[in-house]
Design a protein that fits this description.
304 residues; alpha/beta; Nucleotidyltransferase, domain 5; six-stranded mixed beta sheet; 6 strands
Length: 304
């Protein structure tokens, strides 16, 4: 294990600990009278980020690894069931931590965003589909990038060109990408209000005069490739190289952060595991930006 991930975990712990002290409402609710957790909320968040960056999607294997190699960082490490329960209850804190770290980077003010969605597969066999607790949330969908059908959900992401998550949503596999994008912006009006003239680059599925008018009303200019039968649209020369940027961001989630091997079996389990990976990439970008690393989205210093 490298010193770099130790440094990131320490910096992240201090930052999240300060956040919880100033915003105690973000910590999971606990009885007034009872045992004080031996693993603090800030330590839990740091441990979750290290799990994602080091590539341990299986929580039992991760806790075995942590007890053997991370004793110098954590005074106490729970068993897997306790870690899983704590993590699921910390979803609100993880969400707040993502925004807190993102706004503390130089990438937060970028005036160009990209938006796309990527599959979050939740099962493959017919028996899994029939018996899963995710029935009603997960559904069959089609991934055009890989020309395949899947059963699960979709992660919708707005990010900077450097890969910093700006907004996100987890939906069923068939959810309309345009409606979801507008829902993300409506859920956080300050995102667009604080950035007049923001440019948003999407693929050709984000189409429609009404959709573009809604975006324009929020001060966002949409750039996308022309659909079949449409006249050439502005910025067409930019789309081919920038499309690779979008795909590389999704590939970071899938190949390096094991998004499709999340292991969630319930809705709360899938949600927190997706949030865990969004926090991991945000924390890495935040730390790389703070330390002056040449590539903000590089995870190579932390994945071994």
């Amino acid at each position: 294990m490298s010193n770099e991930i130790d440094t990131l975990a320490t910096a992240l712990y201090v930052t999240i600990d300060d956040l919880v002290k100033t915003r105690p409402d973000l910590a999971p609710a606990r009885p007034r009278i009872g045992f004080t957790p031996q693993l603090t909320d800030a330590e839990l968040v740091a441990l979750a980020v290290m799990q994602a960056l080091l590539g341990y999607p299986n929580e039992r294997r991760w806790m075995r690894y942590a007890r053997k190699h991370l004793r110098h960082l954590f005074r106490y490490l729970p068993q897997q069931p306790g870690y899983n329960k704590r993590l699921r209850k910390a979803a609100a804190l993880i969400t707040a931590a993502i925004r807190h770290l993102a706004t503390d980077t130089s990438l937060w003010t970028d005036d160009v965003w990209v938006a796309d969605s990527t599959p979050v597969e939740c099962g493959r066999s017919r028996e899994t589909v029939k018996r899963s607790e995710l029935a009603g949330y997960a559904e069959y969908g089609y991934c055009a990038s890989h020309s395949r059908f899947f059963w699960g959900m979709r992660l919708h992401l707005i990010a900077t060109l450097g890969g910093l998550p700006i907004g996100f949503a987890l939906t069923g596999a068939k959810a309309d990408e345009r409606e979801t994008l507008m829902g993300i912006l409506a859920g956080d009006p300050a995102l667009a209000a604080q950035r007049p003239g923001q440019t948003l680059i999407c693929d050709k599925n984000y189409f429609g005069a009404g959709f573009e008018a809604e975006l324009a009303a929020t001060g966002i200019q949409l750039l996308r490739p022309a659909r079949k039968g449409e006249a050439e649209r502005p910025g067409a020369a930019l789309f081919k190289p920038l499309r690779q940027v979008v795909e590389s961001i999704n590939q970071t989630f899938k190949a390096q952060l094991d998004l499709e091997r999340h292991g969630g079996r319930t809705l709360s389990g899938v949600i927190v595991r997706v949030l865990q990976r969004i926090l991991a990439i945000t924390a890495a970008i935040w730390h790389n930006d703070t330390t002056g690393a040449p590539v903000h989205r590089s995870l190579t210093a932390y994945d071994h």
